Amino acid sequence: MLCAGSTVYEPLKEHGAGPETRVGIIGLGGLGHLGLLFAKAMGCPTVVAFSRSTAKQEDALRLGADEYVATADQKGWAEQHASTLDLIICTVSGPRMPLQEYLALLRPKGTFCQVGIPEEPLPPLEIMSLVLNGTKIAFSDSASPKNIREMLQMAADQGIKAWTEVRPMHEANEAVADMGKGSARFRYVLENKEDTA
To answer: Which of 9, 45, 83, 187 lies in disulfide reach of 151, CB 3.0 to 4.6 Å?
Structure first.
């Protein structure tokens, strides 16, 4: 929670997530699943989860997503959801992500917030459509101490817990490889047990 939880809580809080905010969460992994949980806990009436394939659809719905969009599998997803969201929290990055399509999902004056630090350049932007829509682009990497305390209190009060899978320490290399493949649901905890043999 201190890392992933605060990373997604901060932009939700700072950009006004609440009962009148329609939120999109892009990427349903270690960060995204917590973003979904916190957006629902903040009372957002609609939270839409976006991922490339349908592989995580059932998990997203169990986490509380109101809708799930598989961008590589659903034709016309961008047009269908155009101008429907107030805030997008993006937990993924890469030069081939459909960034312009994601930005078009925002209502006028909506905010797109990239969390974390992208390892590769983001795709180029078509600026005029962003200017005409009043789109705000923000970045967030860490939370203030005040927001960390609030996030932990909300998690305690509402029973928000990261979905974790415990694996033995000797599987650390395999766990890293599985994370790279997107197999984690959604965070790995490595446990070092003493050898009793």
So the answer is: 9
